[in-house]
Design brief:
The protein is α/β, with parallel strands linked by helices and 384 residues long. It has 11 helices and 16 strands. The strands form 3 sheets. Strands 1, 2, 3, 4, 5, 6, 7, 9, 10 and 15 form a 10-stranded mixed beta sheet that branches. It has a 4-stranded antiparallel beta sheet with strand order 11-13-16-14, covered by helices on one side. Helix 4 links the parallel strand 2 and strand 3. The chain binds pyridoxal-5'-phosphate (PLP). Pyridoxal-5'-phosphate (PLP) binds next to helix 3.
Length: 384
């Protein structure tokens, strides 16, 4: 079976974990956590990063620090893994679901239109006219490692005084190579950026996450919130309600080893993508979606658009599985999930279409050239 996406431990993972356990530092203190934070900050070119328990925790901490309050509205995509949306609810706010564009990321034109037409500014805050609720933030997801249109989105956010949380959980390593944000990494453009080291991400710590922020004081506050708000750790003084969201040293030991391989993994993902691209070239049945121009993407997941009419996508996944290839359909739309059935949506059209025709194909960093050829040949054969 060629799996969809599995972790790759070719480096110093076992060595560092053995070291962490040997030293007895297994919990939320230890040198690997500091190292992980420093190396991450260095990699994405920011002054500081704060390690936490998961990408979801990173998003929750970011939204709280944004000042998202109970009964606020937060603009989110409907094409995403649901973990980008749930923290809005943890914060007591409600999501407004936005459509995607052809990059599968949030449609910046519709975002602007929603703010302009459905909302109004009062005392430099944005309010949704139909519900009277304050709109306080946007969660932008860089879907499958593809950079969202941050130039447009940041312009809109500035115009309407909205905070921007970048869900860069799938996009560690993706950066602009030209334009206004040349050299900037996904996650470092908005007010806050969240990364994930879950098992299927480009690098993993088993489970874990990281937060970066524009304002270093706010980032300090996030670190404080993530460790139970200890004002005096010796005598148990806590001046705020905190969370147990800190990464452990064992996770960080794996993470430091994985970070050493990250740039190599990004290269392999790119190389494998190019090979797939050439193998699917000229097919009428499928088309491999591109990544944004003017960026170097981590190409975390490959999206194959099935263009042949009348294909039963569920059957396709089963047929490929029967022939030894694990694939997956793009997520079901979040605004159609039970907890969000009654949420506000804005002109969702493209998301509907893409949710019915995108297949994710094997993309692990340890795929061989033969594996890739087998996947491409089998997909084309099954769709003949
Ligand atoms: C993986 C993922 C998350 C959550 O990360 P965890 O570390 O699993 O909590 C959030 N958003 C998106 C888009 C993801 O793919």
């Amino acid at each position: 079976m060629i799996p969809l996406s599995i972790p790759n431990f070719e480096g110093n993972e076992l060595k560092y974990v053995t070291d962490a356990v040997g030293q007895g530092w297994v919990s939320t203190g230890g040198a690997y956590i500091t190292q992980m934070e420093e190396k991450m900050a260095e990699y994405v070119k920011v002054p500081k990063a704060v390690a936490c328990q998961s990408g979801t925790a990173a998003l929750h901490l970011s939204l709280m620090e944004c000042g998202v309050e109970r009964d606020d509205l937060v603009i989110v995509p409907t094409v995403t893994f649901i973990a980008a949306v749930n923290p809005v609810v943890y914060s007591g706010a409600e999501p407004v679901f936005m459509d995607c564009d052809d990059s599968l990321c949030m449609d910046p034109v519709k975002l602007e239109a929603f703010c302009k037409e459905e909302c109004e500014m009062k005392d430099s805050e944005l309010f949704h006219k139909a519900t009277g609720k304050r709109v306080s933030a946007i969660v932008v997801v860089h879907v499958f490692g593809n950079m969202a249109d941050m130039e447009s989105i940041m312009d809109t956010a500035a115009r309407y005084n909205l905070k921007v949380v970048e869900d860069a959980t799938e996009a560690l390593g993706t950066r602009y190579t030209s334009g206004k944000y040349e050299g900037k990494f996904a996650g470092t453009i908005g007010d806050f950026g969240a990364y994930s080291y879950n098992g299927n991400k480009i690098i993993t710590t088993g489970g874990g996450g990281m937060v970066v922020a524009k304002d270093q004081k706010q980032l300090e506050h996030i670190a404080y919130k993530s460790t139970q708000c200890k004002d005096d750790p010796l005598f148990y003084v806590h001046n705020e309600v905190g969370y147990n969201y800190r990464m452990t040293n064992v996770q960080a030991a794996i993470g430091v080893a994985q970070l050493e391989c990250l740039e190599e993994f990004v290269e392999r993902k790119n190389k494998n993508y190019d090979l797939y691209k050439s193998l699917f070239e000229g097919s009428d049945a499928v088309e491999l979606l591109e990544f944004r121009e003017g960026t170097y993407s981590n190409k975390w997941f490959y999206s194959l658009e099935v263009k042949k009419p009348g294909v039963d996508m569920h059957q396709l996944v089963h047929d490929l599985s029967d022939r030894g290839i694990q694939t997956r359909l793009i997520w079901a739309l979040i605004h159609e999930q039970k907890p969000f059935e009654d949420s506000i949506t804005y002109k969702i059209e493209k998301a509907d279409r893409y949710s019915k025709c995108i297949l994710n194909i094997p993309c692990s960093t340890n795929l061989s050239e033969d594996d890739i050829r087998t996947v491409a040949e089998t997909v084309l054969d099954v769709l003949k």
